[in-house]
Known about the structure:
The complex is a heterodimer. By secondary structure, chain A is an alpha/beta fold. Chain A is built from six helices and 14 strands. Chain A has one domain. Chain A is 25% helix and 23% strand. In chain A, the strands form four sheets. A seven-stranded mixed beta sheet of chain A has the order 5-4-1-8-11-13-12, with helices on both faces. In chain A, a hairpin with a 2-residue loop joins strand 2 and strand 3. The longest helix of chain A has 19 residues. Chain A is globular and about 60 Å long. The two termini of chain A are 27 Å apart. Chain B has three domains: 286 residues, Phosphatase 2c, domain 1; 31 residues; 132 residues, no CATH class. A seven-stranded antiparallel beta sheet of chain B has the order 16-17-22-21-18-25-24, with no helix packed on it. Chain B is of the alpha+beta class. Classes of the chains: A alpha/beta, B alpha+beta. Chains A and B meet through helix 1, strand 2, strand 3, strand 6 and strand 7 of A and helix 3 and strand 9 of B. Strand 14 of chain A pairs parallel with strand 9 of chain B, so a sheet runs across the interface.
Amino acid sequence: MAYNQSLSSEYPGYVVILIDQSGSMSSPFGGSTGGSKAEECAKAVNRVIREMGLACTAGQIIKNRCDISVLTYGKSGDTAINAFSGNLASKSVVTMEELAQNCLKVNTLKMKISDGAGGLVEVDEQFPVWIEPYAVGGTPMAEAFEEAYKLVDNWTKTHQASFPPIVINITDGEPNDQARAKTAALKLAQLETSDGNTLILNSHISESKAAKIELPASTNELPQGDNNAKFLFDISSELPPVMRERAGAVGYQPTPGVRGFVYNADAETMIRLLDIGTRAKLQ
Amino acid sequence: MQNHNQNEIDFFTLPKIGEKREEIQDAYYESSDSNLAAIADGASTSFLAREWADLLVESFCKNNEELNTINREWKEWLKPLQEQWRQHSIKIRTDPNLPWYAKGSKEKNCGSATFVGLKLYPTNQEKQKTWEALAIGDSCLFQIKANSDQLISFPLQKSEEFHTVTDCFQSLPEYNVSEPTYIKSSYDKDDIFFLATDALAEWIFKDVEKGGSHWRKLISITNQEEFAEFIQQIRHEKLIKNDDTTLCRIVVKISEVEVSHNSLSTEAHLPLSQNNHSIRIEGNHHSSSQNHNITTKNPKLKLVLLLRTALMLIVSIFVVIFLNKNIFPHNSASKSPSNSFELSNNNNYSSFTSHQEIPIYDVDKTSNKPIGYLWKKQPESENSKELWVLVPLAYIKYVAKTNGEELVIPNDSTPLPLFKSTPEPKNISLEEGDFVGYLLPGKYALSQLKKESKTFPNAWWVKIEFNL
């Protein structure tokens, strides 16, 4: 049975995040939080990495249960390059521990929680930043998938027993060459470990004010006439049973055939679908 | 005349591969009078899971109420534990010295744990022996009835019921979503109870479902090292998930003046509550493994036990002798007595073939006994003193000390054929000289080099070194 392996120190997983930092991302984000699409994209990738860090922490120790690469496309001409800066800029594949020690800064939001005696107590909600917003150039999405192919090909050779790699593409969905991007994505999905094929998940950040969509099962659920959404849906993988089960536990109603695709929604929710440890049923 | 039990309780635990003991998310506890035991499995994606699991097991074992009451009023039972946990979590979340990943988040703000706890009641005035259990999620209890094939499980019944998500006790009352389940039943002296977290419980079910009795080895494990070796072996064979693995074993010991099997079978058993289910298992060796130093003041009983053990010993010897006479089924092709092998007696080898067999020896030359035989001398050009042998995966054992593997061919196994290369069995031909000899039962060090068989499942080609 495929997609059975859990992510652990012995058999770590691999997440490759592709972020669209092209010029078109400077337009306003259609979702409720406002700001530009580029700001939303940077927020998304920082939150995805944060969520992975939280999932890999047991007690107060962060464990290397998942390797990460982040590639940016748009700001460096027709290529995709390592999105990290600082100490991590030279490392194409990074561990959780390295990520945890090397953020650019930590933003803090104050939050109030119950003190159990009818009152409230203030706690800090901390959001580390690894990627800053950017918006320049075209959208070489195909090149990004091709670059990801090299990283994933290399990684799977030495991690055949691990859960298959997961590629998360955060974009507004307008690639330079849609056909070439589609081919490159499907080719990337062919790379595999002994536990199954690489999964491609897409987080669509749109100017449209359409309501958010999470894990659709067919194009009927997408905003009508949105070709970018349809294109991204087409290159999103079907979620394997293990991830559907966890989606059910965090509040979705996944039917077989649901794809790893969210539209104007929190990309980091997709991290909660990964098996980095048992999850309690909260619904 | 107050009867009391002196139950033997042992805990064994092993973290997932590559992680440290201190980082285990499983918790366990026993009461000082040995009548209560509990284990809990903290969900590692939840917040401060280990602390929550610890609170649950300790509170359970220090509680005097009947489990029936706790089950009905479980929210009340959890309340003080949740308050304690909440104060601890606030301290953590407001600690300026902790890194961002150790402080949870808006979504990661609550601890979750599965739980199973057992309470054994001493024999009461009406001679009834009752036990109760409370559980939530996929940590399981097993009751192994003495002198019977029965294995009772609670709350789950089969391996398909294990998933990546599970019900849990939550460390904040606002998340009190799932209810626990409760059972009440009866026990006898010599019964054994297991409490196991999900990876081990799932493996026990799978073993029973395929008719195995490998799980019985857990009855006689005596220390942490034996447990670690046992679990590492089944992890190596990919039979059990790589997860924190915890076992609590409770052996029921009763010190009573009068114990007689007849009276036990006629007394009324308490009605079973929901979720009780028996797994019928094949196998009749149960009673022989149950003789754990029963302290009894009854000399008559001692004599009965002694006679029973002696009888079983005689039967076992008879069975072993009988089996050894028919050790090589593949010899049925040729019925000539000169073709029958007897492992203990090497003399008959020479009559098998007209060639002169060459004995081969252990690489370290530690003993004069051959480890196998080759049909004929290898040509001088082929000086490599290693050959391939096809073995079942279960013969390949992981050796923790060297972090390597060894081949263990059991004494009652047939000798295994040795090959120069690794032909799939359908391609073997004697003329081509591939099949060159036999390897006898024993223990052999293995190198890293091994190949999976393309013909048989769970069979591997491994290389053996030898000396002439």
